[in-house]
Design goal:
The structure is a homodimer. Chain A is mainly β. Chain A is built from 3 helices and 17 strands. Chain A is about 10% helix and about 40% strand. In chain A, the strands form 2 sheets. In chain A, strands 1, 2, 5, 6, 7, 8, 10, 11, 12, 13, 14, 15, 16 and 17 form a 14-stranded antiparallel beta sheet that branches. In chain A, strands 3-4 form a two-stranded antiparallel ribbon. Chain A is globular. The N and C termini of chain A lie far apart (about 45 Å).
Chain lengths: ~270, ~270
């Protein structure tokens, strides 16, 4: 069994599931948002009639701690092409994350009926990218990088060198360290695997995700995932961030958008 | 009192609210998704401590009928900068729409800390655009256009002339017919006011919205709203659609994304 499946395992159900928020998938002491959403999605998939998440929309209420958690699942619809369930992740009775999960059946091979011209992102090859480091002096430990192999486009790592690009942009390759092949649940993780784009505005403090929506658009081929993050507006301490995930076959397999906070440290 | 406020009025609460799904805001016999989301958002705002919707994420389970509806509101968080509530819109005990509403305080005048270069869309002037018609021969009646004044960019109305552009794109101006000035609730409506972009792929049947997320980014100035819709991928009968809404002052005031269905009629 792979680390990601162990860390997102749920037991019990139906209705009420138990899980452990794994300390191995944290940024400092805060669990990664994509990881939490994958955990919530796994619980929902335990109670719907379709195999794949198609659309996951969540709001993050407060960061969970590593340790035991409860996931309450309420089925909302059982349709022919889509089933929907609500998931509430709580600790000690306090709701921390609420998600709506629409599940369906993703096809393996069908070509898009239409796709905007442009194709996969123009990322440098993996071996010309910079490997994400769990330990960087002066920063919190990124336990999640023990599990995710992240290779960042040198053009978007300025913040780590004291020269942020000044744009809400981040690009890189992502795969599991232990060779687990990607699947739709892994894509829910992958959309939130790179450092936040706010780093490239020079804000290197934690960027709390308030809302995150993921559309799953295809079954990913084995291999590296190319992730491209891009934001449009930072205003009043909030910024938006779009993520695209492209598989090794050059197919767009996930689209995500999040609203997150970015506030400079007081001078 | 303006038509939009009447049509989104809720009474009762806390916990359980009553409303009427207004037949004046329909496409054929189906209520418009942005209208329904504004109605749900209004109920949530009745139970949180902040005045403005900041982020609304919803999934549509089945289309409501015009007529009485119940809105169950569950507060989930009461924070300093953000309060969050869940809303379930039901008819006859059946959940039809579920939404998470994060409310905060939108500032009036503060300039963005950063914004992607590009600025407001390059729309033709209002009087060079084509007015949306409630009655088009051979199509369902668009009651909503009795209330919304929609002016479409001639470059994106090919589907109405039998010459769809072949791209997921739609652009136009939107305001209320009765002069009601825009506010954040109106923006929740405006993100879903134009015809679906799938029309321009030649699919002119109803495009059922499965999920819709709206980020409110500023208080809109009085006047026309410029709406720009753009999608990236139509695959297996589903397409994504991003909406930007810019106010009369040239400020980006809302961003939205939806996943919707588009299936050609069988030949």
């Amino acid at each position: 069994m792979h680390a990601f499946d162990l860390a997102t395992a749920v037991r019990g159900g139906p209705g009420s599931w138990k899980a452990t928020v794994d300390e191995g998938w944290t940024i400092g002491d805060r669990p990664n948002g994509g990881y939490l959403l994958a955990l919530a999605t796994r619980a929902a998939l335990g109670e719907v009639d379709h195999p794949h998440p198609m659309v996951v929309s969540a709001q993050f209420l407060a960061p969970p701690a590593a340790g035991p958690a409860e996931l309450e699942v309420a089925p909302l619809r059982a349709g022919r092409s889509l089933s929907t369930a609500r998931v509430t992740l709580s600790q000690d009775g306090r709701p921390l994350l609420e998600a709506l999960v629409g599940a369906g059946h993703l096809d393996t091979d069908r070509a898009p009926e239409w796709q905007r011209p442009g194709g996969p992102p123009d990322l440098p090859p993996v071996d010309e990218c910079v490997r994400g480091q769990a330990d960087i002096p002066g920063r919190v430990r990124l336990n999640i990088l023990d599990h995710l192999d992240v290779r960042l486009d040198p053009a978007t790592i300025g913040s780590f060198l004291g020269r942020p690009s000044g744009r809400l942009e981040m690009r890189g390759w992502v795969r599991f360290q232990d060779g687990r092949p990607p699947d739709p649940l892994a894509l829910v993780q992958a959309v939130d695997a790179l450092p936040p784009t706010s780093f490239e505005l020079g804000i290197t403090s934690w960027a709390p995700t308030v809302a995150l929506t993921v559309y799953l658009r295809g079954l990913p081929a084995p291999g590296w995932l190319a992730c491209v993050l891009r934001g449009q507006l930072w205003r009043d301490g909030w910024f938006d961030e779009d993520a695209e995930v492209w598989d090794a076959g050059g197919r767009l397999v996930a689209q995500a958008r999040q609203l997150a906070g970015a506030r400079p440290r007081p001078a």
